[in-house]
Amino acid sequence: MNIILLGPPGVGKGTEANLIAVRLSIDHISTGDMLRQEVRENTDLGKDARAFMNRGKLVPDEVIMAMVQKRLVPNFSHGFILDGVPRTLNQAEVLGEILTELNAHLDFVIELEAGEDVLIERLSGRRVCKKCHALYHTINMKPIRDGACDRCGGELYQRDDDKVATIKRRLTIYQQETHGLKEFYKKKGIFLTINAEGNAEETFRKIHDCLALKK
Ligand code: AP5
Asked: Which long-range contacts (CB under 8 A, 24 or more apart) does 152-156 make?
């Protein structure tokens, strides 16, 4: 199955994409995770991307789509869930061209939605494992041991772009950039919207039920 997960920062795309990828045995492709990896490794791409990310701005489309193409092409046959991409109409069109080349198609585009107060609360409390990138939250998803990852024991940190001023900029940019994108997928008849204000497992059940009904 080939899925796109859309939604504003903090709505739970990474959390839900992880659950879906494991349970459907498909590849989880997160452009945010790929970019953060490049930043950690201090590559040229990472150095360029960091300035955009820390200001809450989008990284240029051509950088993103070259990265996605490199990752998608060798792995697409097992199915995939795209998390955080496409984010602009241009990215959606380039993705369409890549999939046509591969003779592959999209099954669903799922948009998760939640109120702005929920998004800000989730982002400002998010903590991420430095080693395995598992996601936690200071209130909603606490690790067993304070500051340490349950899975691998790695140190938990707060993302640079999870400061309140940057969060607000990211939310504004999301609203500006994604309107055309939603219309694009609605016209294709594969677009679903799911309320993601419940806990992670409740949201996962809603997504799962929608996928099962539409199959
Ligand atoms: P990216 O990493 O994609 O960030 P984002 O879209 O802003 O989304 P987030 O990762 O912040 O949130 P999420 O929806 O995944 O929520 P999560 O599951 O972590 O991108 C970062 C930056 O990279 C962008 O700003 C841009 O600069 C650049 N970039 C990336 N892709 C790009 C592209 N295609 N084009 C251009 N630039 C691009 O959950 C958040 C918190 O809430 C966690 O603490 C979690 O534990 C908790 N939580 C999750 N679900 C629930 C729940 N149901 N109940 C309670 N708590 C929950």
From this structure: 154/129, 154/130, 155/129, 155/130, 155/131, 156/127, 156/128, 156/129, 156/130
Determine how many CB atoms are found less than 10 A away from the CB of residue 12: 26
pTM, rounded to two decimals: 0.94
Query: Looking at the domain that runs over 2-115+177-214, which CATH code has it been given?
Result: 3.40.50.300
Q: pLDDT (tens digit, 9 = 90+) per residue, 69-113?
A: 999 999 899 999 999 999 999 999 999 999 999 999 999 999 999
The verdict on the CB of residue 36 being under 6 Å from ligand 1 is no
Q: 52 CB less than 6 Å from ligand 1?
A: yes
- From 85, 122, 173, 197, give the residue whose CB has the most ligand 1 atoms within 8 Å, as the site to mutate: 122
Regarding the beta carbon of 58 and ligand 1, being less than 6 Å apart is answered: yes
